[in-house]
Amino acid sequence: MDLERAKACIARVGGTNCDLELKVALEDLGLRTEILHMKEIVKKGLAEYQLLVFPGGFSYGDYVRAGAIWGKEVHSKIKSELQTFIEENKLVLGICNGFQVMIEAGILPDGEIAEVPKAALANNASSKYECRWVYVRVERGGTPFTEGLTNGEILRIPVGHGEGRFLPESEEVLRELIKDGCVLFRYALPSGDAADGEYPYNPNGSVYDIAGICNKRGNIMGMMPHPERAFFGWQLPEGSDSLYGDGKKIFQGIIKYLEDY
What is the pTM of this model? Predict the structure, then answer.
């Protein structure tokens, strides 16, 4: 698809943030992007878009638990249309609160929207909000979100969440995620080795150091770290002479996929 014809939709509700940062990042790479409230999406539909993004923030104040209210709204109001969107090999991305929404809606880990979530993003093991830069290791390149990245490559991206501890429903669910190559990113040590649960390198206590997962098809991805907060070099904590940061690499994969779609 000609990139000029492709279009992204960033969803929002009360309490979301980072939608503008995501729009700036995607438009910097040449992708037309709209920010639409959930009510507008329900009325308008998703047919004209090739990428749907659930951004970070505190949707509906994260009452009940993080992402729960918006997740149930997604499941009840656009489940059928979203399933069609996914089956058409279009892309769905959830970042931080957006990842929590996708888990609560049953979109991940299967990609076939489940009635009951098969995983949870629970309170951080530290019992506090974690806002820090972390190292994440690429576990699987070649997906729409990791195109151009190599297995074992290390990215430096920040996190900012209180409920990011990935917990699968069962050991079987975890084994399937690993076997099917659905673990895209793991928290790592600066050396590149897996964090193996070590705090603060694994900032939340996620099982298997999971920082991001995808479905088997690879066109749906949720991650807790914020690539849009590491898109430009000036966003890095120590500053940088480079124009871009590591977060750009994830968005570049999306652009390449849409160009070939």
Answer: 0.96
